[in-house]
Design goal:
Elements (H helix, E strand, L loop, with lengths): L1 H39 L7 E5 L6 H8 L12 H11 L3 E9 L3 E8 L4 E5 L2 E5 L5 E6 L14 E3 L3 E3 L7 E2 L6 H10 L3 H4 L4 E4 L4 E7 L2 E7 L3 H18 L3 E5 L7 E4 L2 H40 L5 H22 L1 H7 L1
Parallel strand pairs: 1-3, 7-10, 12-13
Antiparallel strand pairs: 2-3, 4-5, 5-6, 8-9, 10-11, 11-12, 13-14
Length: 340
Amino acid sequence: MEGNKKRIKRKEKKLKKLRLIKSIFILLCIFIIIYIFFTKLPLFSIKNISVKNNEKIQDNQIVKSSGLVLGENIFKIDKEKIYANLKSKEPYIESVEVKRRLPNTIFLNINEKKDIYTIIFGKKRYFIGKEAIPLSEMNMELDDKNDDNDGIPILNGLKIEKMIIGEPIKISNKNIDEKEFRKFSAGISRESIRAISKEIEINENSEVSIKVSDYQTIKLGKFNNMEYKTDVLDRILKDLKKKKIQFKTIDFTKSKKVVVEKLSEKDLEDIENKKNEGLEEEIKEEVNEEEANEEIEENSEGNNNYEISDEDKEIEKGTEEEKVNQEEDIENPENNMENE
């Protein structure tokens, strides 16, 4: 009896193993079928690649740098690889969101870095990001709009050893640590600072100041504690904007405290007068241009009115008689036949 029970248990164990093996085999077959269905059918081959939110880099350039290829299976794309490709080839790329839309469309949502300031080095203008890394360059000799930087401030006074797109700037200014300089670049990328900056100046003592207007200056001083200084500056600017106070100077160099000097009433009057003078000059220039255009039009009209000389009149009469004769010949073709 005991022997029979043992045999039955063994058979049951074998049956369980067989059932498990069958189940695994069936699941494996199903998985293979699904894999073949989704990865081999032309239905899921990429036909459209849509790029969104990019301003600096063109669509075709982003697609090329991403490594995506039309006809590739939509399920085989590697999102991390796409991001790595774009980061290594396109300095302006901050982040990328890759989305699939079945059956055959890929969306690339781009987040680009912003130009914080520009630097002239050699015969080129470089556009620098918040990490103190050049993002792009412009040949000044070939471009006719060198002075128009789309509101991006220019940084003067930085001594540069090497400038390569996509790599940190190598500087040689004394008393300027490269790490501290990168903190400065990141700090002034804050919207409150970046929006009002017109020009950044580093003097011989390696002290930095930001020109906001002819009447407004921010003095940050030497390149130390830049992360703290720019954080404090950001808070001060937001507070002044909220209270509608216009500053003349914000000075970090005079003492341990930040000194904020307001624009006086006289300063505000001078600013208003200069604005009015500027408007008057613009109006005068426009009036002068209009007068010049009117003179040109009058001269052109006068040049078109001229007298016909007697010789010209005789020539015209002769040509008119010839025309009349030709018309008569055409009207009386029989006369022409007889003469022939």
